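Quick question, first post here. What does this chain look like in 3D?
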Amino acid sequence: MNFSSIKTAKNHGRQDILFGLARIPNTNKAFVGGSDFKIHEIDFDQPKPELRAFGGHSSYITSLLLADGALISAGYDGKMIWWNVATGEKIRSIDAHKKWIRRILLSPDGKWIASVADDMAVRLWNSQGKLIREMTNEHKPLTPTNFQSMLYASAFSPDGKYLATADKTGHIVVWETASGKKVVTMEAPIMYTWDPTARRHSIGGIRSLAFSPDGKHLAVGGTGKIGNVDHLEANARIEVFMWEKAERTAELVSDKHKGLVEHLEYHPTEGWLLGAGGAGEGFLIFMDTKEKKFLHQEKVPMNIHALASGNALKSLMVVGHQRMVLFQMEG
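> Answer (accepted):
Ran it through. Tokens below.
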């Protein structure tokens, strides 16, 4: 892969902030959602991409996915809503969590939907919205200094047998999907900052997770210790664990980009790792986690909140602060 060959194929400006992205497989069409509370459909293959808006939530939309022919959205209102993809009509709505939903994701076999939220519950649903099981008591509702914690990140293993979740304080849990039993816990405390003097405020947390293609390693994304808690001024940070042994095998800290790593994804066959995120500006970073080195670091025009890849990561659709971009890479 020629990492320096990243080209902007399409660039679409917006007034709002986008957090959710669901890409229709093998196309440049997608559904997006964010701070305007609505879902929009976009086709990047059009000369001038136009948005088609349909229903939404009563607050920010934070996550979107496609499952069983339906579009599923989740948001700060604690709801998960099923939509007819063709018509935009609402199929069903469930009160999935008591606080902000941070992420929903589909298992590799399409059987389960996992949701994580700030009520610190991890829930598994079937594709029709029936609750299968709940995993609680591992992610604490309060930080060690008694501030509200948050449950940001989740990832299925490639075989779907395990689900990893991670929170604001840097606490990571791997669960057995079939039973809901805790398998192992790990810690990435550097990704959490507490300022006891200037602001009495906490910030940071683990924002992304990804299992390696062989399922043996778990990559964790966030940021380093922050000096000024009013700004995300620490360098982007990725840690990698041999998770079954709870052993940290790599720590990679960007020397070019600051902010949160909000998306992590391994190449399915070549094994390198992609990270995306940002603060005031955004980044795409490519890493060799075995050699513990960066392969390429690319500045992008906005803080990236979500990424959907295609064609073995040669096509990268990203959304974030006031912008949607389609990047293409040469093989």
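The CA atoms of residues 65 and 300 lie 24 Å apart.
The radius of gyration is 18 Å.
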